[in-house]
Every structure is written in structure tokens, then in C-alpha cells.
Amino acid sequence: MQIKDLIKYIVVTLVGLLLLNLYSATLMGLRGDGLGFQSLSLDRAVRLHFFASAYCVLLGVLVEWRSVVKLVTREIKLKPNLLLVPGIIFLLVSLMHPGFIIIVLRQRLHLPFPNGGVGINMLIGPLLTSSTQNILSVISGILVIKGLHKSE
């Protein structure tokens, strides 16, 4: 392994650690820093959820760091493909606060499968937890980068 490659891996690792720390600090802010949920305003909760999701998207982009470097240095051409569509859909869904989803659904609670049964519950139920949305955020970051170029 050359020193140039080693430096790349160290930088990627440090960026990953930074993103994980920012994400963890954001989650601590969502939990009210030990003060409980009562002390957390809705505006602050929405803002912190957005930042946590954004950090997860960046972690997904970091997984595809080689493709990002090749796109930036123009080693591969920008050729969008169909993976960009689910990537953007997942991104938009993951950025929505779970409370917003409940408001849009007019206060109907959809429990995830198997508690909520089959059907719409299997689609909406998992989105009511920010953990699932954070997983979607990571996946969306990966899919968006993969969707920006055609695989060789």
C-alpha cells in the first residue's frame, strides 16, 4: 500500500468519525440532554431530525467515496440512471419528521408489521420512527451517488 492510499483511507475514516460524532450529538439533543422530551420544542425537534438525517445521508455518500472522487475528478462521467429515482424518494421521505407524517395522515396511527397488519401499515408504520428514517437516509445517500453514474 502506498502512502497516498493510506492518506485517503485515514481522511475517509476521520470524516466518518466526524459524521458519527455529529449524528450522536444531534441524537443527544433530540433526547433533551437528559431533561426529557417535555423540554424539547417541536421546532427544535424538527430541526434536529433534519440534521440527523442529513448526517446519515452524508454517511451514505461516504460509503461511495471512491465514486464521489471519480465524479469530482471527472474520471467517470455524470450519467444519471434509474437508481437516482428511489434515492431521491428515500431522501425526501427520510427528511420528513415522524410527527409531520402523523399530521399528514390525519392523526391515524399505522403500526409496523406484524402489529399493524398487512397493507398500508407496512409502508407507513416503519416511517414513524426516526431510526428507520435514518437507515433510509444512509441508503438514499448510497443510491443517489450510484444513480449519478452508470456502473462499468
Can you offer a commentary on this structure?
The protein is built from seven helices and no strands. By secondary structure, the protein is mainly α. It is globular. The two termini are 24 Å apart.
How are the elements arranged and paired?
Blueprint: H1 3-30, H2 42-63, H3 65-72, H4 84-95, H5 98-104, H6 120-124, H7 130-147
Characterize the biggest β-sheet. Answer: none
**SS summary, helix count:** 7
Q: Rg, please?
A: 18 Å
* Helix content estimate: 55-70%
Average of pLDDT: 83
Number of domains: 1
**Spatial separation of the terminal alpha carbons:** 24 Å
Overall 3D shape: globular
Q: Give unreliable regions as ranges.
A: none
Structural class: mainly alpha
Number of strands: 0
Kindly estimate the percentage of residues that lie in beta strands according to DSSP. Answer: under 5%
Order of helices and strands: HHHHHHH
Question: Brief overview, please?
Answer:
This protein is mostly helical.
Key descriptive features of the protein:
single chain; 152 residues; mainly alpha; 7 helices; 66% helix; globular
